[in-house]
Amino acid sequence: MSYSxxxxxxRPADTVIVLDFETTGLSPNQGDRAIxxxxxxxxxxxxxxxxQQLMNPGFRISGFIESYTGISNAMLADAPSCxxxxxQFAEFIGDYNLxxxxxxxxxxxxxxxxxxxxxxxxxxFACSMLIARRLYQAAPNHKLGSLVSYKNxxxxxxxxxxxxxxxxxxxxxxxxxxxxxxxxxxxxPNFGLLQSIAKQSKGNINQxxxxxxx
Length: 214
Known about the structure:
alpha/beta
């Protein structure tokens, strides 16, 4: 069963890198920078590698960001620069497809930080939040913490640190793949299908997925 002829999109959805940034603010266009990257590498639905690194943005972060993330200026003082870390991270992600919760945020920062070092990536992005909005319409909301509780996913109670959030997002991603298999007999869907779920209307999603399983 093929949901896309594009070689990147036709790769298995259970072989991806799930990533999360902590940042100095909401917009790289306004001068905000990354201060931490965390990522989990999944292959055939199993965690095979992790990446976590603080990074010094070159200026002091606000008290709000310190309290929100638990990352202090003292912690960042000895951290390597964003450029150093992103060179390592570009090597880590290689040509994997990428997943993030509220992916437009993380993609903006990934694109901005990689542009600074003249780097790019080959993979495509999928947003676990948009997909969860279609699959879990009865959830109270679609924040990561709420969905983790809704799906009874075990976690250590740490939020807004990059590796912890990427690990929880990876668990949510795998739970969604399990549910697609259980509810729609979509065994081993490819990445393109997961992307396409986010683009369906709420009312059409069941019909769409039933059609894909035939």
